[in-house]
Amino acid sequence: MKQGNQVRKTKTKNKTNNRLKKIAILEGALKVFGEKGFEATTIAAICKSAKIADATLYEYFESKEDVLFSIAEHYTRQHLENMKQVNHFFHNTREKMRLIIQSYLEFYEDNPLYSSVALLNLKGNRNFLKSPAYQVVREASGSIIEAVDEGVKKGIYRDDVDAYLVRNMVLGFIEHLTIQWLLLKRPEKISPCRDSIFIMVMQSIEKNCKEAYDN
After folding, report:
1. DSSP 128
2. CB contact at 8 A, 25 and 46
3. Reduced to 3 states, what is the DSSP secondary structure of residue 69?
């Protein structure tokens, strides 16, 4: 029995160490990608930033591109988990949309280095669209689709609203604003733009958008 417990403890410890090592590599890579861009970044530079031997990286990732995609998966899972933790506190359909907009803005604002890599390096990568990491990104953005569908069923949003187009519109607003913030340093912060984006979305999809101006 004691031997079995020791084996389990050892496996748990190794699993934790592997997870922490992988996160350390991702964080080291993020710094280099943010400074140099994807094309100019080398495996050697990533390993130097992460303080590991070059061979160690290949124990966790297949390539530089795999590291890039894994960064997106890691940070998006954090974002998704944060949204899930607070979402169940909101039962008002319209407030769910406001919360989603706020969560994206705060996520990008709190993680400027990741935002730069994701929106300026990763966005145009066609291979990313085929990766498991992209499915996590889609899962996160699916919260917008769910919120719209819920609003349509409750009669709050118009029956002819296309939830997927609304998702693209919301993310388009947020990502364009974030890119402007990253490149031009304007506005000083993006999170205060929550209500402006929210009102524009409500004007586009709500049957009666008067309430959007009252909050």
Report:
1. G
2. yes
3. helix
Tens digit of each residue's pLDDT (9 = 90 or more) over 93-117: 999 999 999 999 999 999 999 999 9
User: Is pTM beyond 0.90 here?
Assistant: no
Taking the chain, what is the end-to-end CA distance rounded to the nearest angstrom? 61
User: How far does CA 62 lie from the centroid of its chain?
Assistant: 22
Cα 54 to Cα 50: distance, rounded to the nearest angstrom: 10
pLDDT at residue 212 greater than cutoff 50: no
**What superfamily does domain 1-61 belong to in CATH?**
Homeodomain-like (1.10.10.60)
Name which CATH class applies to 64-214.
mainly alpha
Task: Give the 3-state DSSP-derived string for 94-106, with helices as H, strands as E and coil as C.
Answer: HHHHHHHHHHHHH
CA distance 122 to 16: 28
Q: List the chain domain ranges.
A: 1-61, 64-214
In this structure, which amino acid lies at residue 118?
A
Q: What is the pLDDT of residue 124?
A: 84
Amino acid at 160: D
